[in-house]
Specification:
With 313 residues, this protein is an alpha/beta fold. The chain contains 12 helices and 10 strands. It has 2 domains: 2-147, no CATH class; 165-312, Rossmann fold. The strands form 3 sheets. A 6-stranded parallel sheet has the order 5-4-3-6-7-10, sandwiched between helices.
Amino acid sequence: MFQYSFYRFLKDLYSDVPVKADLTWFYANNDHHGYELERIFGKDADSDFSMEEATKSEIFKVTGLVPNMIKGGGEAARAFERFRRYPNRIIREFTQKKREPYMIDQLSGRINNEDAADGSNEMYEKVTHLDTSKDWYICGFWIEEKYLYGRLDDIRKQLRFPKMEDERNRGLADEIGSCNSVSIHVRRGDYLSSTYENMFVSLGRDYYEKAVGYVKDRVDGPKFFIFSDDADFVRDEFTWLDDKCIVTGNEGDESFRDMQLMSLCKHNIIANSTFSQWGALLNKNEGHMTLYPEAYLKDRDNEVKKMPGWIRI
């Protein structure tokens, strides 16, 4: 979703040249259910969602590398992903030096992505002042707030959730709309796995107690709706919190419904997770507060948000 927002940022900024999206990474990778944007946000007839996918020949022309040709996330796609490493290794050896000036990788470290003391940012200046007479290939996560400034109203029109058809979620949505609802997101799951346990902070009771206390001091009679990938943990660990509802049942292809319900809450307490961050970003309630953790990665704090109503805990 951050990459989609960045794509639309570039489309608006460089409206006189084609800007297209390379989705081939998702052909062989199904992390977090894979690529779902069109399935979820392309359904609403009133949505402004649009995504123009680059062709394989366009990707090869710009990068000089063989892209994955097989969709589906199955074994054939994964096998082709492994196979293409070999020709691409040879191609890189002989052709990549001449292409490097026109390839921007946010994670490569070649261009500084940190804000300087004077507020400037080398990466932001680079991507907003491209020579459009050349072909560019840009990759990264683009989660930084600067790419969202002044654009949230448009993004909310583009990322519109489909209507809820099931009685359980409609009932939850009605309850959320009828009270001073506050979402709480508790992410565990993959953050506790061997892959990520040394990377991401697993937020504890201290953060959630402070965030809840901040809300209770400012909101009359709040009711807390807790969303998590570990409902059993939440039941055990949140016994200290009264007037709560632990939301369960939205799994698999319907997992996005939790984000949709978060976005309907009057206020949001998010985790160090882009899932609940987008629940808060898509929240249209006037004057809503979003409480977010200072801790994010184990070696780095969260960026300080400057959007109205965002409070760092």
